[in-house]
Amino acid sequence: xxxxxxxxxxxxxxxxxxxxxxxxxxxxxxxxxxxxxxxxxxxxxxxxxxxxxxxxxxxxxxxxxxxxxxxxxxxxxxxxxxxxxxxxxxxxxxxxxxxxxxxxxxxxxxxxxxxxxxxxxxxxxxxxxxxxxxxxxxxxxxxxxxxxxxxxxxxxxxxxxxxxxxxxxxxxxxxxxxxxxxxxxxxxxxxxxxxxxxxxxxxxxxxxxxxxxxxxxxxxxxxxxxxxxxxxxxxxxxxxxxxxxxxxxxxxxxxxxxxxxxxxxxxxxxxxxxxxxxxxxxxxxxxxxxxxxxxxxxxxxxxx
Length: 304
Prior knowledge:
The longest helix has 16 residues, at 79-94. Helix 9 crosses helix 10. Helices cover 47% and strands 15% of the residues. The chain has a six-stranded mixed beta sheet, with helices on both faces. The protein is globular, with a radius of gyration of 21 Å. By secondary structure, the chain is an alpha/beta fold.
């Protein structure tokens, strides 16, 4: 049986268990842990993989998740690892939570952008991990270029050359290196002069596009509810690309203007930043989450 030797300790995990172990960071597993305080799924995968016989079950859940994430980031870099690296190294590493915000799975036409970071402008990051195909990359780039100022593809060292062949000159290229650093291979070109207001409109919530229209056009249309979307879309279409983009950035930033979210991000382990941002945890759940992270690992994997 082929196994992986983990860093810093004499622990071996069969390779076949890594995809299942990485699901620990999925909303369905973490939210079950927060709500019930135990996880049959996590218990079974830790036992079946042989981890329970090799680690200290007295460690806290927070320490365990950091340990597991550290090994994922070395041995099995799925999409979550990339999202969390962007959250830690770009959102928190280069910007301030007071004037920046990160969105995940942001809908643009028929695509969902993996990560969007807004501050003074907008950057989109499409993840192409070792386990992703490049089949949709051209369609994704085309869609994102209609909405965001700067479009970036982030990938692994093994895929850099292959991904680079797929990219127009204006698209940025980044690498998550083997030692867990994000480096820029190619800087993106500003595209906000060419965005499509109509497509931006379709990405926004009703209160957001109404706010922009009232500010830019000077009034909000007084029409029946059934006509609001259609009339507002026509008004939004008349806004210039740069203004539409810049106003979009402002309303998206307002989504992150949440002290509770900022406090949680500041206090949770680095391995969980992307999860917290994605789930937008409220104060009640934040307290339960904090209590969970402080518990001992053995208390959450006891069979129920």
